[in-house]
Amino acid sequence: MRFGLLKHLPPTLRFRLTFWNTVVILVLVGGALWSVRELVRWTLISELNAGLIEDVKDVQLIIDHFGLNWEEVAADLEPKIISNSDRGWFVRVFSSSGELLWSSSNAPELKIPAAQAVKPGSYDRANYHLLQRSLPEGKRAPPLIVRVGVRRDQVDEDLWRLTKWMLAAFAIILVAAPVSGYWLAGRATRPLATILNTTARLHPANLSERLPLRGSGDELDQLSATLNGMLDRLAVHLEQQRAFVANAAHELRSPLTAMRTSLEVALERERSPAEYRELLADLIEECISLSNLINHLLLLAEGDAGLLHADGQVRLDELVRRAADMFQGIAEQRGISLQVQLPHAVSIRGNRVHLREVIHNLLDNALKFTPERGTVSVEVNAPPGASRVQLFVRDTGSGIPPEDLPHVFERFYRADKSRQRTQPTGGSGLGLSICQAIVHAYGGEISLASTLGKGTTVTVSLPISG
């Protein structure tokens, strides 16, 4: 298990940030300190090699001068040996075959493999650093091998001193990294604690509290702003839901109360068959109204749940023509001119029943608010090659006040502020809401423009089926 150890760490984000921050710092600092130590060691060894190379050159000059007269060679090298006695400097001379020809008196006995004994290069044995070089044949000497060496004590002491300082620095960082990391992680996660505390206090009954913004513009500020936006939308949605439930209860209670009252009055005394038939007819009418209201509520619930889907091709021009034919009689009865302008055949993806509901609602609203001798026009506009078709429903009615226009698509909203079902214009206030839910479900848009005293235009835009 690669990260099995992490499962045993405390679950807080602050601790995990501190842990990973400490691990990264220690790895980086440890690697940097080790690299510096190795660089210093390499530098010291390089300086040591440079000095030994110069020593080999000096030995070569002496041998070129005295030849194989080792007494003269020893006498010439004696001052150098004495002056470097504290370093343990020594020299040995071998034949090209590896036979020892001469050695300084202070040369240590080092066990060196035979293959390495004749191989040029530098290497370490015991606490000595050695440099071995081949000398070419000279005027007074054959080819030789010279080995010079010094003790590594000074280099090792310098390295150990540096290592101790580095270990002390690493120990300080080992303590400081988690402490400072824990403090920094606390500052970084403090806004998260505020977010958690604030969200824990939130309740559907009170969504007025918002997360504070620090003005830093960082990711936590963006998170707070995003959550505040979500809370705003949630508050609006809950308020709409409360209003919807209250209005639905009101709309259902009024006809039920009327039905109950009618039945109670009917039971107070004996009535004639004609009176009972009239009462039953009224009850059936109320039941039909209730059924329509419930169907509308169910349709809106399906829209909220995303269950309104296109299930086939629908001829929009045919739906508009049939709807206009159906409302033509009502228009004539009210003295209103109903005009229809249809293009060639236009097909869209949708549900025939739902789209018919949209057209009927728009025509019903237009006729309801248009006075006698007014005009209601229906136009379907789909230019050749266009990707969307537009449906216009215009009337010359009373219009809608400007302050009511932003609310016309809200559920149960009535621009006339009337809630009496007995008035001719009194509806449930769900017509435009249903139209909007259906149009949006099919990828369309619906808008309304109105001028008080001149009329209203509703525009529906839907994608044309390919």
Write the layout of secondary structure elements.
Blueprint: H1 13-66, H2 70-83, E1 90-95, E2 100-103, H3 114-117, E3 121-125, E4 128-135, E5 144-151, H4 153-201, H5 219-266, H6 273-304, E6 313-315, H7 316-333, E7 337-341, E8 347-349, H8 352-368, E9 375-381, E10 388-395, H9 431-441, E11 445-451, E12 455-463
Parallel strand pairs: 7-9
Antiparallel strand pairs: 1-2, 1-5, 3-4, 4-5, 6-8, 9-10, 10-12, 11-12
For the record, the count of structural domains works out to 3
Name of the CATH architecture of the largest domain: 2-Layer Sandwich
Nearest-integer average pLDDT: 85
Main structural class = alpha+beta
The backbone outline, from C-alpha atoms, is: rod-shaped
Rg from Cα: 50 Å
Q: How many strands appear in the DSSP assignment?
A: 12
Strand order of the largest sheet: 2-1-5-4-3
Model regions low in confidence, pLDDT < 50 over at least 5 residues? 417-425
The proportion of strand residues reads: 15-25%
| Cα end-to-end separation | 54 Å
Largest sheet: 5 strands, antiparallel
3D architecture notes:
The structure is a single chain. Helices cover 53% and strands 16% of the residues. The protein has 466 residues and is α+β, with helices and mostly antiparallel strands. It has 3 domains: 157 residues, 2-Layer Sandwich (Beta-Lactamase); 106 residues; 151 residues, Heat Shock Protein 90. Helix 5 runs antiparallel to helix 6. About 2% of the residues have low confidence.
